[in-house]
Amino acid sequence: MGKETKIKCVVWDLDNTLWHGILAENDTLVLRENVVRVIKILDERGILQSIASRNTHERAMEKVRAFGLEEYFLYPQIHWNSKVTSIEQIAQSLNIGINTFAFVDDQPFERDEVKFSLPEVLCIDALEVDQIPAMSVMNPRFLTSDSRQRRIMYQSDIVRNQVEADFAGPKETFLSTLNMVITIAPAGPEDLQRAEELTVRTNQLNATGYTYSYEELDAFCHSDQHRLLIASLDDKYGTYGKIGLVLLETAAATWTIKLLLMSCRVMSRGVGSILITYIRQEAKKNQVRLLAEFVPTDRNRMMYITYKFAHFREIETDEPGDVTLLENDLSTIPPFPDYIQVNFIGVNSRI
User: Is 138 left (phi over 0), alpha (psi -120 to 50) or beta?
Assistant: First the structure.
């Protein structure tokens, strides 16, 4: 697989970009040619979209609504601050890396300012809107059911996050109100496209940073020495989709977690700990030694902390940036938390 970073979010300017004309000057506003087609194509590909515009928020959103486009834009930033600040805020709200952003604006000054402050962001002239769907960075290798629902799942997250922010009690009490159900199952042929997408898209919560192609993942599914598990999560607000992936190397006496990752959207739901608890339970049943590989990156320290909280200890560390080998003695394995129901489909004591 290539190392090209795919775009996860396109941020649009409004005046003379999304539409022709300037709102503050009371121009008659007309949508840019083909812009609706481009927005819908990106949405179908699972590419999120937002707005960074110097305007009055309510007035601008009124026009966006009038054009029937409000639903496509997450966390729109419409104010008089810099576009750099807006993009940074959108990235923080979506919890995805700045290097996966593209910014569309008609003004060279605005694009240059973003390029200077956020060089990882792909800046696109509004005159090139028609070319966006053909850009390789805008074309994921696969279109999965999860990618087609990505915007809707993020919109459900916005509702959840607002409810959580307004909740006055302890975090676990809030989590218990969500009626969460996590399902762990062996990855099947229908899961492999999403599994590849997870390895490519997930940087922050990937314990090794490894990425695998569809073909490599398919080979693991047919290997007697490996087990590939995929996890999905649902709650009363809807589905999070398939959000976790585990690759186990299952030798006769030792199991090694080669890959443990999860979507950033479930960072606060305890999914990593639940997956680790399940693996520890199964390793103990099968009386095998349990190891885990960890490769530090500039973004995945949370996964190291997850392992440490699960009582993994370092037994071997190569040079900085290389693989750190961890071991769990399986002596104290906690039960699954009360706030979530854990289902297993097609898994048994041998995983």
Answer: alpha
pLDDT at position 137 over 60:
yes
Tokens read off for 89: 């805020």
Q: Is 26 helix (H, G, I), strand (E, B) or coil?
A: coil
In this structure, the answer to whether residues 181 and 228 fall within a common structural domain is yes
> The domain containing residue 157 runs over which residues?
145-344
Question: How many domains does the chain fold into?
Answer: 2
The sign of the CA dihedral 20, 23, 24, 25 is positive
Q: pLDDT tens digits for 38-62?
A: 999 999 999 999 999 999 999 999 9
**Residues 252, 274 share a domain:** yes
CA distance 39 to 29: 18
Contact by Cβ (8 Å): 246, 303 = no
Q: What is the pLDDT of residues 279-289, one digit of tens each?
A: 999 999 999 99
User: What is the SS3 assignment for 200-262?
Assistant: HHCCCCECCCCCCCHHHHHHHHCCCCEEEEEEEEEECCEEEEEEEEEEEEECCCEEEEEEEEE
- Residue 52 CA to residue 84 CA, distance in Å, equals 9
The answer to whether residues 8 and 87 touch, using CB atoms and an 8 Å cutoff, is no
Quote the CA–CA distance of 226 and 251 in Å, as a whole number. Answer: 8
CA atoms within 13 A on the CB side of 271: 29
For residue 205, the one-letter residue type is: L
- Contact call for residues 299 and 334 (beta carbons, < 8 A): no
Q: What are phi and psi of 217, to 5 degrees?
A: -65, -40
